[in-house]
Amino acid sequence: MRPGWAAAVLAAPLLAGCVDAGRGQRTNPLFAGADPSVLIEDGQTWLFPTGGGDRLYGWARTADGWRRSAPLIRMSDIAWIADGAPEHFLWAPHAFRANGRYYLFYSVGPQNPTPSRIGVATSDRIDGPYIDSGRPLLTGGNGFEAIDPMVFADPALGKTYLLAGGSAGARLRMFELAPDLLTLAREVAIEQPERFTEAPFLHRRGDLYYLSYSHGSYNRGNYSVAYSTAPGATGPWTYRGEILASAGRYKGPGHHAFFENADGSWSIAYHRWEDVAGEGPYRGQRQVAIDRVEYRDDGSIAPIVMTP
């Protein structure tokens, strides 16, 4: 996701969201932010969004709403950013648990005039603090923008993959991670999915793999989520269509994460613009939301309905 959030949540409230007394659910929107990833820990849902400029936060669902953590990591904690480049931001984090630890992958940019980069930090606690690995994991350039990291552990092959890629070149790349998850073992050759712009997300349901991603411009009404499916984590991919798009007062939904609930149902976390007119470019703050996902009998995903 492009870093068009200069006015993002630098001073967000520590508690956000409200309770729908009839269903016991948090109502949308949850809080200001963008690009959420999801990690469920001991039955508690955590969201890790963009929103803080020079720092990243986690948000935990509680009985009273969504509570923001202390900063997980700051730019001042990442020595390799201070390299004479222009002003940078942190965005699009992805949280992952493995090896008895927590890993936080994140984007550092903007892309020009220096390449964008992806870093990774670790912690013994989900709420941090996270310690940077000491070097970039992946650097952009030559038509590739190193943003929007997503990590997927393939239960079939026992391998863990990093997917990344963004709108400057709209190119997706995939890498097998080394066991320490701090280095790249090798690049995996994959075909470019149809209508890919940025924000890849890979999940598996049954024997089918779903590669979903954002298409369009992040601050316009054409921003949306499409998906493809395959029999394996690396393809070959079959395009299945668009499943999340602007509707009514909700515009430009995207940069999402699928997750399975305790009852076996599925949900999607994403961001959207609210109460904006026309096709953009929109300005202000995006909002994080969660809605239900419905899979049809043939494995396809029904269009997702954005709820208030």
How would you characterize this protein structure?
The chain has strands at residues 15-16, 19-20, 25-26, 31-32, 34-41, 44-50, 55-56, 59-62, 65-68, 73-74, 89-98, 101-109, 117-123, 131-132, 138-139, 150-154, 159-164, 173-177, 184-188, 198-205, 208-215, 224-230, 238-244, 250-260, 266-274, 287-293. It has no helices and 26 strands. The strands form seven sheets. Strands 1-9-8-6-5 form a five-stranded antiparallel sheet, with no helix packed on it. Strands 11, 12, 13, 14 and 15 form a five-stranded antiparallel sheet that branches. It has one domain (15-293): Glycosyl hydrolase domain, family 43 (Tachylectin-2, Chain A, 5 Propeller), CATH 2.115.10. With 308 residues, the protein is an all-beta fold. 0% of the residues lie in helices and 46% in strands.
Key attributes of the depicted protein:
single chain; 308 residues; Tachylectin-2, Chain A; five-stranded antiparallel sheet; globular
Note the topology.
Elements: E1 15-16, E2 19-20, E3 25-26, E4 31-32, E5 34-41, E6 44-50, E7 55-56, E8 59-62, E9 65-68, E10 73-74, E11 89-98, E12 101-109, E13 117-123, E14 131-132, E15 138-139, E16 150-154, E17 159-164, E18 173-177, E19 184-188, E20 198-205, E21 208-215, E22 224-230, E23 238-244, E24 250-260, E25 266-274, E26 287-293
Antiparallel strand pairs: 1-9, 2-3, 4-26, 5-6, 6-8, 7-10, 8-9, 11-12, 12-13, 13-14, 13-15, 16-17, 17-18, 18-19, 20-21, 21-22, 22-23, 24-25, 25-26
InterPro entries: Glyco_hydro_43, Glyco_hydro_beta-prop_sf, Glycosyl_Hydrlase_43_Enz
Family: Belongs to the glycosyl hydrolase 43 family.
Keywords: Carbohydrate metabolism, Glycosidase, Hydrolase, Polysaccharide degradation, Xylan degradation
